[in-house]
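thought: user wants a sequence for this fold. calling inverse folding tool.
action: design(structure=
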């Protein structure tokens, strides 16, 4: 009896050891599995689980005479739950084949248990496929594995033996299955979470480093513990590591650094975020304004362990505000001292009063702008002497219209022949006449024009990729939405090309990123020149080395022809590329055209173009491929 007990525990521990080894292989290999294609990764999981299944079935443990059990159900359940059908195939086939080959009276029960476990795992996989795996759902899997691995005993064991078999076989075996599934699943789940967190941290780091604004963190002593490249640039530090462990005292004069430190100490004392505007002289001698947000860094107990700072330079904004404030002050002074021209007319338009500034505004007709002169006579003389910019075909009609406008309450602006802009503000007098204030608004007009130019420039920057000069991703999304809507309304075709530079990572590795940037610029130039053959085409940098082209109102087959022309245009550049089998820089293009499938949804076009691009890559690159009928999920391309 003692020998049997030792054999039982040895084989049981052997089963558990196999589960542990397979779990370790999965956890250690998970970072590698995560980089595989989504359809390959489950197969790798299935291979490991199949090996584990075979091993435990070769090490069965005997609970009672004639009853041999193993932990195959743990492997089958884990495979189905974490990998779905693809991962389940190998373990399931291995378990069924081996169990059938071993034979015995329990072959039907064993096969039934195997199939029940597989079905239970697949059902739970289907339920949780689009949801995060939680310990609760993992416990449900373990319960399902334990139940499906033991339910057959109810039908195969005689009723008079239930009192012996259930407490001595079913309950212990179900417990072992439950525990082994729980521990294996938790280990896999924890490793997947670790990989996910690592990937998220990598993404967040890339975003932070790409921020044009300064972002950094300091400890309670004011020493830098983290920073992005923009911070290093602001501090005139050669690299980010050169900042770490140092404080503002190492980069700024003592008085400026002390002012910064005072703000930080105030934040630490209050424990609340602070938003301040700081003005200081930078290390290169410029007067710099910063809009600074400082927030505390708290540990799990809520204690402040440091602070994070976000700086955005607002020097240009402050200069604009200062210029505006100065202009407003000057205007107020001018109004208070009656710097504007003032003229009062009676109901018939005869001049009753005027000041000297009024005469200075109109030097060519100043000699007739005197009390008693009719406004209509002044207007006729202004046209005759060329003071008014207007050259009417019917002067008298122009005089009457202009007179009526001046005598009507309100504001109007007009331009003189010398280029100045004059604003006339008219108010009715109690006797039916009019009081008119004339103001030279040339500067304001120029500022208005400059502002429109600036706004237009800023709008261009917001929609233009800084490197290539093409539209950026934001502008592409807007354009695609708009063109898709218009194509539906007009019943027209819409083409979409997704262009990817072949072996671009190898190009950067071989020639360096500056040459890579120059390569992208050259390709963008080629695409712009070639795509100009189609009116209304939109060329945008889709991301990284990917460029997208939207072709509105395109007929069947035209999108493919244009794509071929773009591919040839890049090839004709002959840019050397030692890292490519082509020897030169080439592109692969995926083509989607709504008129071919009757689809006008943006997402459909993107998926189809992406599918075509993947096909072009798979077929050897440097070519054009039309969208496939059933585009697969997007894959990593180099």
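)
observation: tool returned 638 residues.
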């Amino acid at each position: 009896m003692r020998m049997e007990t030792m054999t039982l525990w040895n084989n049981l521990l052997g089963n558990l050891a196999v589960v542990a080894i397979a779990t370790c292989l999965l956890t250690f290999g998970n970072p590698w599995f995560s980089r595989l294609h989504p359809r390959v990764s489950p197969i790798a999981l299935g291979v490991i689980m199949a090996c584990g299944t075979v091993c435990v079935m070769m090490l069965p443990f005997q609970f009672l005479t004639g009853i041999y059990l193993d932990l195959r159900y743990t492997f089958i359940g884990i495979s189905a739950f974490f990998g779905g059908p693809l991962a389940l195939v190998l373990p399931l086939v291995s378990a069924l084949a081996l169990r059938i080959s071993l034979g015995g009276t329990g072959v039907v029960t064993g096969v039934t248990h195997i199939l029940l476990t597989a079905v239970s795992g697949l059902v739970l996989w289907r339920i949780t496929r689009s949801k995060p795996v939680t310990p609760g759902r993992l416990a449900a899997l373990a319960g399902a594995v334990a139940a499906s691995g033991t339910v057959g005993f109810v039908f195969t064991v005689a009723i008079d033996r239930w009192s012996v078999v259930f407490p001595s076989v079913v309950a212990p075996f179900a417990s072992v299955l439950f525990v082994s599934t729980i521990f294996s699943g938790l280990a896999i789940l924890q490793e997947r979470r670790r990989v996910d967190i690592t990937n998220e941290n990598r993404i967040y780091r890339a975003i932070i480093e790409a921020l044009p604004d300064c972002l950094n963190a300091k400890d309670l002593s004011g020493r830098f513990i983290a920073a992005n490249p923009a911070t290093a640039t602001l501090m005139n530090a050669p690299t980010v590591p050169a900042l770490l462990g140092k404080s503002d005292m190492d980069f700024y004069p003592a008085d400026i650094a002390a002012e910064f430190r005072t703000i930080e100490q105030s934040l630490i004392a209050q424990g609340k975020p602070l938003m301040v505007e700081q003005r200081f002289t930078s290390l290169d001698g410029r007067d710099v304004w910063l809009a600074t947000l400082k927030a505390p860094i708290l540990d799990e107990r809520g204690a402040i362990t440091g602070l994070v700072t976000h700086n955005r330079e607002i020097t240009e904004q402050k200069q604009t505000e200062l210029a505006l404030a100065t202009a407003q002050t000057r205007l107020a002074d001018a109004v208070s001292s009656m710097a504007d021209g003032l003229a009062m007319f009676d109901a018939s338009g005869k001049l009753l009063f005027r000041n000297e500034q009024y005469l200075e505004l109109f030097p060519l007709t100043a000699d007739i702008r005197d009390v008693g002169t009719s406004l209509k006579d002044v207007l006729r003389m202004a046209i005759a002497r060329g003071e008014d910019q207007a050259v009417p075909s019917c002067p008298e009609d122009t005089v009457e219209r202009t007179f009526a406008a001046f005598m009507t309450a309100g504001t109007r602006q007009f331009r003189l022949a010398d280029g100045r802009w004059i604003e006339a503000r008219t108010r009715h007098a109690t006797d039916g006449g009019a009081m008119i204030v004339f103001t030279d608004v040339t500067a304001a007009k120029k500022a208005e024009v400059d502002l429109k130019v600036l706004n237009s420039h800023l709008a261009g920057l917001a929609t233009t990729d800084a490197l290539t000069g093409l539209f950026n991703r934001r502008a592409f999304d807007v354009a695609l939405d708009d063109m898709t809507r218009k194509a539906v309304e007009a019943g027209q075709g819409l083409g979409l090309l997704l262009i990817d530079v072949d072996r671009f990572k190898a190009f950067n590795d071989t020639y360096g990123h500056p040459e890579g940037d120059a390569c992208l610029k050259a390709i963008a130039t080629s695409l712009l020149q070639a795509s100009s053959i189609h009116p209304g085409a939109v060329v945008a940098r889709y991301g990284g080395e990917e460029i997208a082209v939207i072709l509105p109102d395109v007929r069947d087959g035209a999108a493919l022809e244009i794509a071929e022309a773009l591919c040839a245009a890049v090839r004709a550049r002959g840019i050397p590329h030692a890292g490519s089998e082509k020897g030169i820089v080439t592109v692969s293009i995926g083509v989607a055209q709504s008129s071919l499938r009757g689809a006008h949804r943006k997402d459909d076009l993107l998926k189809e173009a992406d599918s075509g691009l993947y096909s072009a890559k798979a077929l050897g690159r440097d070519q054009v491929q039309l969208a496939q009928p059933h585009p697969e999920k997007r894959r990593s391309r180099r």
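thought: summarizing for user.
answer: Here is the designed sequence. The first strand starts at residue 61 and ends at 64.
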